[in-house]
Amino acid sequence: MERQWVAVVVRAQLGERDAVAELVRGWHESMWRFVRRMLGRDDAADDVSQEVWLAVVRGLPRLKEPERFAAWLFTIARRSVVNQLRDKYADQPQTPSYDEPDPADQVVGSVDVMRLVDRVPMLEREVLVLFHLEDLSLEECAEVLAVPMGTVKSRLHRARRLLRGVATEGADS
Question: Does residue 112 contact residue 106 with C-beta atoms inside 8 Å?
Fold first, then answer.
């Protein structure tokens, strides 16, 4: 993490409201994108992002290593996503649901990589998003996912292979 952010984190830990606002401005978008990629819906990402920032504000005074803020933030986001998914699946009826797809998911970009990423299983998808889209290091990914670095590397390798397969499958159809 850049030195400027460490200073902002320390100021926020000391109770400076402007520093907290600066953290939110600087980190909200990348954290929201991660949550959105994991949950697949904007409205769910908005709700979970609010929960994440609430947990960050409450836990900031206890963060012992300000230079690890990014990994800490994404760990909180990951836990919140897991909680959201757990709640969602616990509340699901046993009968299949035939909901219409979210119209926001129908937006097609110049390169539709995000659709391909969405088709990769959750464990591999989260490492793809953290490493390639959020630019976290392998060490930070390992910390966020609470797994050894070797596991991150193998998941990343498998994720890339699965992504290639999904892309090839899409190109063939």
Answer: no
DSSP, residue by residue, 33-93: HHHHHHH--HHHHHHHHHHHHHHHHHHGGG-S-GGGHHHHHHHHHHHHHHHHHHHHHHHS-
**Cβ of 160: how many Cβ atoms within 10 Å?**
16
Q: What single-letter DSSP state applies at residue 85? A: H
Mean pLDDT along residues 146-162? 93
Helix axes 42-59, 17-39, angle to 10 degrees: 140
Distance CA 171, CA 133 (A): 23
Q: What is the pTM of this model?
A: 0.68
77 Cβ partners below 8 Å, 6+ apart? Answer: 31, 34, 35, 48, 49, 52
